[in-house]
Amino acid sequence: MKRVITYGTFDLLHYGHINLLKRAKALGDYLIVVISTDEFNWREKQKKCYFTYEQRKALVEAIRYVDLVIPEESWAQKRTDMHEYHVDTFVIGDDWEGKFDFLKEEGVEVVYLPRTPEISSSQIKKELYNAADVEDSKLNHDSINTNA
Ligand code: C2G
């Protein structure tokens, strides 16, 4: 059984994440997804997630390609994860191209997959924020008119 592992935040789960997980699973028989905890995200990536770790874990566990979800608590855990989970292949999007080549020293294949263009959790947040802004100013404008 070929075991594949990938790491990520997976906040505001979207089709870019699903595309990655689908292609990762296609590289083997068993897919482990290591999801960044809220503490790790804030401490190491200055990311504040919309969904908590538990919520993001539940969402990713519901995906048909995923066999196991575990927490990512440090950058350093990758080396030991490869042995603890008997990993054959490490996969991640090519926004990380080259960053994890050191894992080859642990005897695993390292694969960078092309990201899905035009979608990201931060993009979703930005567009929703702007849309709300437009809505608010429209509502204010309308209320000024009706009060005029
Ligand atoms: N991804 C993708 N296409 C997108 C967005 C994301 O293929 N449009 C991929 C990323 O390349 C990554 C995975 O989906 O492989 C998860 O993305 P993020 O949640 O943004 O993960 P990130 O914050 O980059 O954390 O130790 C590694 C880090 O935990 C990765």
How would you describe what is shown here?
The structure is a single chain. The protein is of the alpha/beta class. It has five helices and five strands; from the N terminus they run βαβααβαββα. The protein has helices at 15-25, 38-45, 53-61, 77-84, 121-147; strands spanning 3-8, 30-36, 68-72, 89-93, 109-113. A five-stranded parallel sheet has the order 3-2-1-4-5. Strand 1 (3-8), helix 1 and strand 2 form a beta-alpha-beta unit. It starts with a strand and ends with a helix. The relative contact order is 0.18. The model has no long low-confidence stretch (mean pLDDT 95). The site of [cytidine-5'-phosphate] glycerylphosphoric acid ester has 16 residues, from strand 1, helix 1 and strand 4.
Class from secondary-structure proportions: alpha/beta
| Helical run tally | 5
Anisotropy-based shape = elongated
Largest sheet: 5 strands, parallel
Q: How much is the radius of gyration in Å?
A: 19 Å
Mean pLDDT: 95
Descriptive labels:
148 residues; binds [cytidine-5'-phosphate] glycerylphosphoric acid ester; single chain; 43% helix; 5 strands; alpha/beta; five-stranded parallel sheet
Ordered list of secondary-structure elements with their pairings:
Elements: E1 3-8, H1 15-25, E2 30-36, H2 38-45, H3 53-61, E3 68-72, H4 77-84, E4 89-93, E5 109-113, H5 121-147
Parallel strand pairs: 1-2, 1-4, 2-3, 4-5
Bound molecules: [cytidine-5'-phosphate] glycerylphosphoric acid ester.
[cytidine-5'-phosphate] glycerylphosphoric acid ester (C2G) binds next to strand 1, helix 1 and strand 4.
